[in-house]
Structures are given as C-alpha cells and as structure tokens.
Design a protein that fits this description.
The chain is α+β, with helices and mostly antiparallel strands. Helix content is about 40%, strand content about 10%. It has two domains: about 1-195, no CATH class; about 205-305, no CATH class. The protein is elongated.
Length: about 300
C-alpha cells in the first residue's frame, strides 16, 4: 500500500482509495459511507439503487437539525467493493461526503458525529459541514492537532480534497489500529469551537459557508414554523445573491449577513431603502457601521415596520 501513498503522517494523498479501506477492514474496522444528498439531484436515488438492502441512517435525526432531514447526510454500511463506490469514484460531484472506518459501535460513532453538527463561535452556533471533504481536508491539513478531536471514535476517513484528490486521514497517525478501542461518551453539544484560526483558514470560502449555514437555518424554520420562502427561486440561490449584496455594502459578520438575508426576504429586493426606512440610516454611512446596521435590522425584524 505504501507505494501508492504520496505523503506521510495523519493526512496524506492516495492514488487508490480502496487500499487504505481494505487495510482498515482487515484490521477490524467496519466501513461507513456518509453521503450528502444535496451534492447532486440523483445522489439519493443512486444510493438506494446501488445499496437497496443496506440499513440507512439520517445523520440529522435526534439533533437540533432534525426538522431539515432533506438536507441531512445519510450514513450507510459498506465494503471496499460496494457498488455505490463506482459512482463516487466516477460520476459523483464535489462534496459528496466521506468514507469512515471505525471499530467502535454505531451508536458511539453516531453520537460523536451528531455532536459535531453545530460548532460554537463568539456569536451564534453555526452548522459544521465536516462531511464535506473540501472543508475537512483543509482543516486537517492546516490544523493537524484538530484531527483526533474531530475524528473521535473514527479511526480513518477517505474523502476528496478541493483539488479533487483522494485523501486518507488517520486519527492516530503511524499508530493506526495499534491501541485498542476505548469507548467514550459523546460530548454535550455544541462543544467544537470555531476559532480565529478557522476563520483565517476559510477566509476565501467564507461567503459560501455563510450561504450554506443561512440556507439550512431558514429551511429549518420553514419546517418548524412555516417561514415563507421565495416562490420562484431556489432558496440557496436567493441567499447567495443577498449575501453577495450584503458583502458589497460592507457587512462581514455572520450575524449581520444573516439579518440582511432575512430583511431582504421580508422587505424585498429594494432592501435597504434608506429613504423609505429611516431606521436604516447606518446603511448610508461609508464605511458602514456594522454594529449599528445589526441593531437597525434587528429593530425592523422585531417590529415588522419600516419606520421603527
């Protein structure tokens, strides 16, 4: 296997992902596919076609994201030659998910993965899309100390990087499978924290991350509270467009951009019309005072009126 591995350590590129999968299975690990159904409109149909008899588990169940199961990744047992792997290795789009190897029981794996779904920030909790290989490999490559923290009971992960290369991530580096499994309870959620190091790491990807988090938050509110969403436009497209508008105005924080999207959803494309809404005076200042803009948007959303 080593002649097919280009790097060393706990995060390395591999030419053929089946070799590290087979090694993990030979050493006592079960293999699991985590598939994001939002990666492609046919992804879920492909999963049920290729793995019709496999037991399938929704990651978002029994979590704060349970109301948006249509956006939830699926966890499915598999082997190194499972039919779905042919689709993943050939036709699957970026961010399809990951393959996990672990000798821990499924309830422990699920408990840990579900505890990662929300991450703490200095403001509000945000969704942590750790199943997106482009996100995970960037963290593991630049912040290797986070690898055992994120993997928990998972011994090995195989996924695709931003460069569309297969990457093998080992929790225990060169000590892979040398220590026996030690059961641990899941951490109370949310516990994983996004720091300034994370923000710097994803500076160029930040708009996309914000769009993803705001979209999933609004979908959850639609399911729970009947929130009215755009009728003639996909929600993710609507959110992306208005996040771009907010950034162009000088907003930057997650809180302010989410508020901007919510205000645009309620008041339409003309938001922020400072002349029609005197409360939005902070938007007329250059550079914009983000704290004042946040306060103004909160007042408008809480009262519902344009002159609050």
């Amino acid at each position: 296997m080593n002649d097919r591995i280009h790097d060393c350590g706990s995060n390395r590129r591999v030419e053929d992902f089946r070799f590290p999968l087979q090694e993990a299975r030979d050493r006592g690990c079960a293999l699991w596919l985590m598939l994001d159904p939002l990666c492609h409109e046919q992804a879920l149909a492909q999963l049920f076609t290729d793995e019709p008899d496999a037991e399938k588990t929704l990651l978002f169940l029994e979590t704060p994201l349970a109301a948006v199961t249509e956006a939830s990744p699926w966890l499915v047992p598999m082997g190194p030659e499972s039919p779905i792997l042919r689709w993943i290795d050939g036709d699957a789009p970026p961010a399809w998910g990951m393959i996990l190897a672990s000798d821990a029981p499924l309830p422990e794996i699920l408990g840990h993965l579900r505890s990662l779904l929300l991450a703490k920030t200095d403001g509000r909790d945000v969704i942590f899309r750790f199943w997106d290989g482009r996100v995970l490999t960037r963290i593991c490559r630049s912040m290797p100390k986070e690898i055992p923290v994120i993997l928990g009971p998972v011994r090995r992960i195989l996924t695709l990087s931003e460069e569309n290369e297969w990457v093998c991530i080992d929790r225990d580096e060169d000590a892979f499978m040398k220590a026996p499994h030690q059961p641990k309870p899941a951490m109370p959620r949310p516990w994983y924290r996004f720091t300034e190091d994370h923000e710097r790491l994803f500076h160029d990807k930040r708009p996309g991350i914000i769009v993803s988090n705001v979209t999933e938050t609004l979908l959850r509110e639609k399911m729970e509270h009947g929130l009215a969403l755009p009728r003639n436009e996909r929600l993710s497209v609507f959110v992306a467009r208005h996040v771009d508008r907010g950034l162009a105005l000088g907003l930057w924080r997650m809180e302010s951009l989410e508020l901007f999207v919510r205000c645009s959803l309620r008041h339409g494309e003309a938001f922020p019309d400072v002349r029609a809404m005197p409360a939005l005076a902070p938007f007329a200042r250059h550079p914009i005072d983000e704290n004042s803009a946040i306060a103004a948007m909160r007042r408008i959303l809480n009262t519902g009126g344009p002159h609050a």
